[in-house]
Amino acid sequence: MAGEEVRAFVPSPLPPESPPVGLDDSLQQALEMATAALADLELAGGMVPSVSWFLYSFVRKEAVLTSQIEGTQATLVDLLSSEAVDETVGPDPDIEEVTNYLDALAWSRNQLSRPDGLPISARLLSEAHIQLMQGVRGSDKQPGEVRRSQNWVGGTRPGNAAFVPPPPHLLSQALSALERYIHADHELPPLIRIGLIHVQFETLHPYLDGNGRLGRLLIALLLEDWGLLREPLLYISLFLKRHRMEYYRRLDAVRTAGEWEPWLQFYLDGVASIATEAVAAIRDLGEQVESDRIRLLALKEATVPAVRLFELLPEHPVVTVTRVVKLLDTTRPTAGKAISALEEAGILKEITGRKRDRTWHYGKYIEILREGTE
Q: What is the DSSP string of 206-220?
């Protein structure tokens, strides 16, 4: 309401100093467990025949989950099915939000991998924000531009909001300070610093929309850029979705009471938990592929095109005849026979029940992968 007094929260620059973050025995143990779990995930990713299988799947899982935290209804199966259909069929708005996350991640990783690319910076985040908001809800809220008006979280206006971020005239200085912290040497371990940076970004809330997804994307980028993972295999949003209310409470407690250590404990527990789950998923998915390969090769219907199609399934677990024609660069009859062979082996299952425009799922693979995304 006009003239009402509003109190915005303006965070101090990182690292916290009053008091400084203290790594007590409990937090040190959580850090060691999270670090070891990430190392195990890195090792598991390096030991499989094709890390691209799991990168394709896990990145999509994170894209779905981070969007679901913000209220998007699209599931992993929705996303995979959308990718399998004719490109002329436009995705629904929820799926488009998920695919925008994939585009933003791919663009950002490309920048970070190039000698002439952008480093992790306010500029990189703004460019990623453009990708994130392209053509979806919030696309009219200045994509790629640091906000020039006050925003808030919860409530109908700043006066009754659950949280009011800093006013816009302070953002330039605050983002510059955050950027300097990201690139400065510091005695705190990298994994701890990533937890601090995530909270700081979410507290600044520098854009009118999309801050939550971009803040979680920043975790993935820092894990890779700082050498904790070579590929973005950690779908941390699964933990944050499972514990969504505690996630918000922990963020709020940092702002209202300076409770950095409980937030870091929560965040490190999440890293350890999801990294451990991801290692198990890699093992289970790899075993599923291997057992299905053995079963397929034992069939007389296992033609060369059928085997070629099978080897592509981990990156294309939902297929149509049209999709298989393109994947194998072959004819529709040959594509149909390859699909039939995989049906005969119990690998693919037709899920529409139609006689035309049918779709097949690599069901057992998807069942392992979809855990937590429905």
A: -SSS-HHHHHHHHHH
Q: Using the predicted structure, report yes or no on whether residue 139 has a pLDDT greater than 70.
A: no
Q: Which residue has the higher pLDDT, 363 or 45?
A: 363
- For residue 15, say if its preceding peptide bond is cis, omega within 30 degrees of 0: yes
pLDDT tens, position by position, 148-170: 999 999 888 888 888 999 999 99
Domain region containing 109: 25-280
Give the closest residue to 209 by CA, choosing from 71, 95, 76, 91: 71
Are residues 180 and 316 both part of a single domain? no
User: Which CATH number does the domain housing residue 182 bear?
Assistant: 1.10.3290.10
Q: Are residues 238 and 315 in the same domain?
A: no
Q: Up-side HSE of residue 150: CA atoms within 13 Å toward CB?
A: 16
User: What is the per-residue pLDDT across 338-349, written as a single tens digit (0 to 9) for each?
Assistant: 999 999 999 999
CATH at 358: 1.10.10.10
User: CA torsion sign, 113 to 141 to 89 to 241?
Assistant: positive
pTM equals 0.93
